[in-house]
Amino acid sequence: MFSNAAKQAARRRVALIGTYVPRKCGIATFTGDIVEQSANFHPDIHFDVYALTDPAKPVDHGNIAGEIAQHDPDDYARAARRINESGVDAIWIQHEYGIYGGDCGEMILDLVDRVAAPLIVTLHTVLAQPSAKQRRIVERLIDRASQVMVMARHSRDLLMGMYNVGDARITVIEHGAPDRPFGRQDEFKRAMGLDKRTVMTSFGLIGPGKGLEHVIQALPAITSRHPDFLYRIVGATHPNLVAEQGESYREDLRAQADRLGVAGHIEWDDRFVETEELLDQLEASDIYVTAYPNLQQSTSGTLSYAVALGKAVISTPYLHAAELLADGVGDLIEPCSSEAIAAAVNRLLDDPAELAAMQRRAYARGRETIWPRYADAVARLIDRVAADAPRRRMAELQTPALSGFLDMCDDTGMFQHAIGKVPDRRHGYCIDDNARALMLVSLADVMDEPTADRMASCFAAFMNHAWNPDTNRFRNFMRFDRGWCEDSGSDDANGRALWALGHTALHGRSEDIRWWARGLFDEALSMMDDIGSPRAIAFATLGAACRVEGEPDHAGALALLNRSGELLHRLLAESRRPDWAWFEAVLGYDNPRLSQALIEAGRITGRGEWTLAGLSSLRWIASMQLSATGQFRPVGSETFSHPHEALPFDQQPLEAQAAIEAAASAFRVDPSRRWVEHARTAYRWFFGENDRGAVLANLRTGQCRDGITPRGANRNCGAESILAFQLAYYGVLALARSHQDESDSSGGDPEDQPLALGAGDILEKRRLPEKPAANF
After folding, report:
1. Which PANTHER family does the entry mention (predicted)?
2. CATH topology of 4-176 equal to that of 185-365?
3. Cis omega before residue 650 (within 30°)?
4. Parallel, antiparallel, or unpaired: how do β-strands 90-95 and 12-18 relate?
């Protein structure tokens, strides 16, 4: 492992998950090789190793980043949190069904669902006929992965054909192998006391899947023609087999050799051999044989080693062998056939020139997989996937255009969804989006007055029609044919509708639209008496705050503010734990709105304890939505069913908007630099400062992608996302104005000076006509 100094200087840091040396298994050796060979050839890549542990077989992993108890699902979640907190650039999982806990190794999903950095998954086995459970696990891993690595082209073809994985997301890197000189058999035979013997070797953990019984059965036909022939079987019995059956399999093989009279032509090395000794023993061999009966075997590290060392290889055509030994590199034989094995061995031993030629072909093929080439391929894979510092920085706080917003509207209202950037009429309209669209029209002063009047009337008419006096509720969903899908919408939709009405009553562009909004707000306000959803009440509270700003003695709005403050303050006190300063046990969507509503209720009613509690909870949720590297990481939508957790995906623009506008409310009562910084961080999320370096917002059109998935940006540009981005901009702008005012009134205290985003990052003078241009 690297020293701490090397770790700090690393260009890339990768969390590497799997079994690890000195554990005696092929995946552990593979993982160890990744670390060792990358250190040799790409020392600027640092690996934080998280090793699977089995309490029944403890090993000392030495100085690694962490261990994961194989059969403890909570430990996978704890490891995910440690990895997220470490700020790595990528995560690399070695997948084999048997090394993780749960049915078919499903516990690895408890980690995968919680990690934020881009994910690489190496599938050591890709089954052509997986069980239903095995397939679901692989599908989930693939869905989360930015890149899937396999070691054979056949595995790539299976992924493309069975799992519909695009070729661009699959990386084929053949198993790495050592770079040693060619043709040193005699030297190593002498060192092992094997001179004057023709040596054939099999390596690896011993079990029925190796086909050793077929090789032993072939020996009489070989030794009768080549009496100096020695077959070496090197490797311990597989520990799982030992646990179930002891050494009965090995004993059966020995008994078979005795019956056939070939025991004197077999040498057993009954132990797990470390890599360097394994290579020495391979060098002492003339022929390497793998007789696996299972032709779905994906990879064999020892096969790669044997080819790279220039050994003549005889093998059944399992997946790895069929590719590596093609074009005469080795000899492929039918499985479960002692006759085929004997014929292939005798053919080579009867013709020393052909034996030497095959060895040379193997050595030449092995140059493609030697460790320097392998390490280069690993570095390219990591660079392709790793999360960079933002790929595109937001330079100026520019006003986004509105063309993309207008493209999503017709004379009924704003469509809910889009396929890419094309409005999807199948899903019609909803009051949630049309209420937010009305709020945007009130703020977007780049929209000319005729267009603003027309669009405000359109969205107001939608809301007016959505109001159902028979149920005293707003309807929410409308089909494209203008038919309503329901008589009453959800609590949250109704709360958001009241918010939009209060906002329009205060900020509407014309007195006519403000007058209309005041009337419908007053008519609909009583519906909140029957709504107890905290989030719906928070939305309505924000509307009530606007209503009181315009009409300070509005009794109904004041009553709602008092009810909301009492409820949210009580919920916060009841749900608080030492590590959980929140209103509920589960984080949902639009989370900062709960804090924002409590702050606004305290500010307007003069209840200082509410304001302080709102600020405290907002500081907590802000800390939960920052990555270890300081980027905004919205609480993901997958969090909703996980109490006392925050999962990173899918990330949605609504959370960034809420963070910005809540920060603006906080700044009104606590003019601290922290709120300006947090809003700035959340706004930059739209422009690539996020877990995938994905640019979501398009200033030229004003459109916005629907969020960030584990694999990058969701290409769709729906109404909620467009509106969240547009309103986030105006929220940032309002906070910038407040911050500038506070800075001017502070008399130039450095702590309160405007915060620059970067060179040229200034607000347009037209936005702040009475003051000089300000940095934000």
Report:
1. BLL5144 PROTEIN, GLYCOSYLTRANSFERASE
2. yes
3. yes
4. parallel
What is the tens place of the pLDDT at every residue in 656-690?
A: 999 999 999 999 999 999 999 999 999 999 999 99
Element (H, E) at 68: strand 66-69
Q: Strand 45-53: give its sheet, edge to edge.
A: 66-69, 45-53, 12-18, 90-95, 119-123, 147-150, 170-172
CA torsion sign, 373 to 378 to 379 to 383? positive
**Amino acid identity, position 330:** G
How many whole angstroms separate alpha carbon 737 and alpha carbon 740?
5
Instruction: For the chain, give the longest Cα–Cα distance.
Output: 109
| 667-678 exposure pattern, b = at least 16 Cβ within 10 A, e = fewer | bbbbbbeebbeb
Sorted by where each begins, the domain ranges of the chain are 4-176, 185-365, 403-767
CA distance linking residue 738 with residue 282, whole number of Å: 74
Of the listed ranges 136-145, 310-319, 736-745, the least confidently predicted one is 736-745
**Exposed e or buried b for every residue in 191-229, given b needs 16+ CB within 10 A?**
eeebeebbbbbbbbbbbeebbbbbbbbbbebbbeeeeeb
Q: What's the CA gap between 261 and 250, in Å, rounded?
A: 17
Average pLDDT taken over every residue of the chain: 91
The one-letter amino acid at 506 = L
pLDDT digits (tens, 9 = 90+) for 467-480: 999 999 999 999 99
3-state secondary structure of 172: strand
CB contact at 8 A, 399 and 764: yes
**Which CATH topology does 403-767 take?**
Glycosyltransferase (1.50.10)
3-state secondary structure of 288: strand
532 CB burial (10 A radius; 0-12, 13-18, 19+): exposed
Q: Write down the residue that tokens 């929410």 correspond to.
A: 476
Q: What is the 3-state secondary structure (H, E, C) of 703-733?
A: CECCCEECCEECCCCCHHHHHHHHHHHHHHH
Torsion of CA 645, 647, 651, 652, to 10 degrees: -30
Extract the tokens encoding 327.
Answer: 């074009």
Amino acid at 13: R
Position 749 pLDDT exceeds 60: no
What is the helix (H) or strand (E) element at residue 150, kind and residue range? Answer: strand 147-150
Predicted structure pTM score: 0.84
The CA-CA-CA angle for residues 76, 587, 620, to 5°, reads 95
Q: Which residues is 687 bridged to in the sheet?
A: 695
DSSP track, 562-591: HHHHHHHHHHHHHH-BTTB-SSSSS--SST
CATH assignment of 4-176, among 3.40.50.300, 3.40.50.720, 1.10.3720.10, 3.40.50.2000? 3.40.50.2000
Which of 590, 608, 599, 605 is CA-nearest to residue 727? 590
First-last CA distance in the chain: 43
- Cα separation, 732 vs 739, whole angstroms: 10
At 168 the three-state DSSP class reads: helix
Residues 6+ positions from 57 with CB-CB distance below 8 Å: 23, 239
Q: Bridge-partner residues for 713, per DSSP?
A: 708
Residue identified by tokens 């054909």 is 161
Two tokens at 236? 């311990």
In the block, tokens 């400062």 appear at 689
Structure tokens of 602? 């305290």
Q: Which residues contact 658 (CB under 8 A, 6 or more apart)?
A: 590, 591, 592, 593, 596
185-365 fold: Rossmann fold (3.40.50)
DSSP string, 363-416: HHHHTTTBHHHHHHHHHHHHHHHSPPS-SS---S-PPPPSHHHHHTB-SS-BEE
Percent of the chain with pLDDT over 90: 84
